[in-house]
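Suppose a colleague, Dr. K., hands you the sequence of a protein chain of 44 amino acids and asks what its three-dimensional shape might be. Before reaching for any lab equipment, you can write down a predicted structure in token form. Begin with the sequence itself:
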Amino acid sequence: MTKEELIEILKRVLKTESDLEFLLKLDESELETLVAIVRDRVDG
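The predicted structure, expressed as tokens, is then:
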């Protein structure tokens, strides 16, 4: 999955249109971890 796709997932999970492009500074594995943590927190 690309960084851009991961950021789009975060936008959907957080229900935001905010600019999250700063997250592109993270490497892909860090973004994947962030997505997993946010999903767990929001869904849990």
